[in-house]
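We close this part of the discussion by returning to an individual protein. In the encoding step, the backbone of a single protein was reduced to a row of integers, each denoting a local shape. The sequence in question and its structure tokens are set out directly beneath this paragraph.
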Amino acid sequence: MKSRIKWFLFLSLILLLSGCTHVISKDLRIKSDPHLTLGKVRQNPESYKGKFVIWGGEIIETTNQKDQNTLVEVFQRPLDRRGEPKEILTSEGRFLVLTEEYLDPYIFKKGRKITVAGEILGERIKPVGEMEYRYPFLSSKQIYLWEDYYSSPYPYTYYDPLRGYPFGWWGGYPHGWWGYPYGGWGFGIRYHP
């Protein structure tokens, strides 16, 4: 009986620790400089050539090029301890990632969260609207694409294609925002099978 409890605790600890691991490999995390933020590099990207960074955010556009490379434009977001872009309004701007493989724009589409470990190549200038924008330019060494959650018609819920139904935090169950008896004002998770 005691050995079963120990085994269960050991497995629980392994699962807990595996859920907290960073999505970028340890070797690349060691090579990368966590103090080189996008904001710092944007001031003079050419002076940071050859340095490794780990940045992330939301995809703006994925463009396949004639030479079979793919260029990904990313709207930067701060990363959490696992490397996932946080869903907050703070951003230090945009950056470009070049990868030597074909990335399907249907999968790597606008709005998907991405984390990239890469080497700084310098900068590229590209128009954003009517202005010229200076992008820090990375050569990708590792890319992690986060699960895709689609917006749902229900307030504060998201559609998860793997589960096949919306889920998330919202105020009110089962009928919405009207309060008791049609649903309270508290928070809860609502599943829609």
DSSP finds three helices and ten strands in the chain. The longest helix spans residues 2-18. The longest strand covers residues 113-128.
